[in-house]
Each structure stands twice: as C-alpha cells, then as structure tokens.
Amino acid sequence: MAEPAHSSADEDGQEPDAESTADSASGRKGKQKKKAPLWREILVLLGTALVLTVLIQTFLARVYVIPSASMEQTLHGCTAPCFGDRVLVDKLVYDFTDIEPGEVVVFRGPPAWTANDFQSPRSDNPIVRIFQSGLSLVGLAPPDERDFVKRVIAVGGQTVECCDEQHRLKVDGKPLDEPYIYWQPGSSPSDHDPFEPVKVPEGQLWVMGDNRTNSTDSRRQGGGGVNGTVPESDVIGKARAIVLPPSRWGGIGDHNAQAVALDAPAWQSGIPAGAGLVAAWPVVFLGRKLRKRLTRASQAGSVR
User: Fold this and answer.
1) In angstroms, rounded to a whole number, what is the distance separating the alpha carbons of residues 191 and 167?
2) C-alpha to C-alpha distance for 32 and 34, rounded to whole angstroms
3) What's 169's DSSP letter?
4) Which residues, listed in sequence order, are joined to residue 195 by a DSSP beta bridge?
C-alpha cells in the first residue's frame, strides 16, 4: 500500500501552530516599531543641547561678541575681514563678591547711555532676524541688545578726575597705573579728555575703555559726570576669557590700577618684626612651663 503523504512538521514531529507563527511575526514587527528613528533621536539631542545652552547662558555664563574697538588691544573688536573676539562672561561671580576696580565687565546700557559703540546689523526678514538672534545667543553674531564692555575705573564713594601733570587719571587724588591703555597711532596720553572731579555715587561705577581715544564711556555718555556712571545692578557679569579666535585664547586681565606698589614708611616696615616679637614671648613662656612640668614628672617617676 502506498504510504500516506506527510505534511511539513517541526523537529518534534508536530504540526506548526499557524496562530503562534503569526503572533511571533507580529511581535517582531511591534518591537521594530518601538525603536525611534535616527532623525527623531537627533532632534531630541539637539533640543536638549539647545535648552541646556539657553539655561547655562541665562544663569551661569555667556559668550559675547566684541563688535567695537573701544577695548583694543585687550579685546579685539575689528569687523570683517577681521574676526572680533568672543569672550566668556561669568554671570555668577558678583552674586558672591563685590565689583572691583580694574575688572572688565559687560553691562546693559543705562537710559543715559544713548550713544552706542556699534550698530548691530539686523535683517528686515523676520525669519533671518530669528536666526541672527539665535547666533547672538551663542556668541556667533553681534548682540541686538544695548550691551557694553568696559573696564571699571572707580566704584561708589570714590572720586575720579583727569588728569595729573603726566596725563594720568586720578582716583581719590592718586594717579592710576594703567598698563592696559592702548593709544592709537597718532595719539598719546596728552589726548586724554580732561574732566572735573566726579564723585561716583554709591552703587554706581565709573567705567572706561582701554582704547582711550576711541571709547564712548562714562566721560561722554549722558553728558559725562554722574550721568555717565553705571548702576551695579546693570552689570551682567565679568569677562573671564577670550574663547575665539583660537589664536587669542587666554584670560582677561583685571589689573587694579589703584593698587600701586609704594614703599611703606620706616615705622610701618617695623610692624612685622614687632608683631613677631610680641607673639614669640608667650610661646617661650609656655615652653618653659611645659619643660618644668615634664622634668618634675620624670623625677617623680624615677623615685617610684
């Protein structure tokens, strides 16, 4: 007799379950569908990076473009074909410390500061303007707000004036040591704009550019005088370092022009020696008493 025809079976000799086969196939498809496409992962990554960038630059630090020449040569502000400096500004430091003379700060221009050091070009196209604002946020385009970068010369309560016989600024009657000043070709210290003594109000700052003959600062803004001072509350942060271009990487100096090293009077020079003598007496006295006690304890132990 002829053998009955055999249908295909699994290794155990059992017929495959059509339903289980369909379920496993659909399960595999379900698992494949759960995996997010690459483009979505990239969008999530870029979105997260953008949010973190905004948070960091809003609360911690921000990169600013230097678009003007008012801080030459400390900060380059040349435009095309040059590449202006990008500086990292610390926004937290003044939450814990006071603003000191010599520090380079970025601040919002107060109402009296009506003259800008530069004109920020912005497109009339709204889409392009949004793109430019985004680049400005990360320091790749000039800012569209009225922000300035200058050096602090005097703080609240101090009196600043120009100048002495050697054309140096004076604060509280003392000449300043300003090695950071840049005199453009054809200019010299004698070109310092003279101005009468100005007492800086408490909570205000007197700021000036390092490029003295090409800086619209406290001397000129608001007509000069007290109107040219800047509220400390308008300070955004302290310029810490140049981050671009790579050829100019480095920190930004905060030389305090008021801290001029002077020889102390002879009687002041003797203060450290006198303090050392006074401190030495109790040390010697206590050392003698300690030695006596140790000697007595040693003698008592040998008697026993």
Assistant:
1) 8
2) 5
3) E
4) 162
Q: Per-residue pLDDT tens for 126-143?
A: 676 666 566 665 555 555
- d(CA 170, CA 175) in angstroms, rounded, equals 4
For residue 248, give every residue at least 6 positions away whose Cβ sits within 8 Å of its Cβ, in sequence order, or none.
Answer: 76, 85, 242
Strands (E) across the chain are located at 61-65, 86-90, 104-108, 147-155, 159-162, 169-171, 174-175, 195-199, 204-208, 230-231, 235-244, 250-251
Token pair, residue 111, equals: 């109402």
Q: What six digits make up the tokens of 24?
A: 């496993």
Q: Output the six-digit token pair for 157.
A: 């309560």
Pairing label, strands 195-199, 159-162: antiparallel
The residues annotated as belonging to the active site are 70, 150
The pTM of this model reads 0.67
- For 180-196, the pLDDT digits (tens) are 999 988 888 888 889 99
Question: Is residue 235 over pLDDT 90?
Answer: yes
Give dist(CA 118, CA 264) in Å, integer: 45
β-partners of residue 171 are 160, 174
pLDDT at residue 112 is higher than 60: yes
Length of the chain in residues, anyone? 304
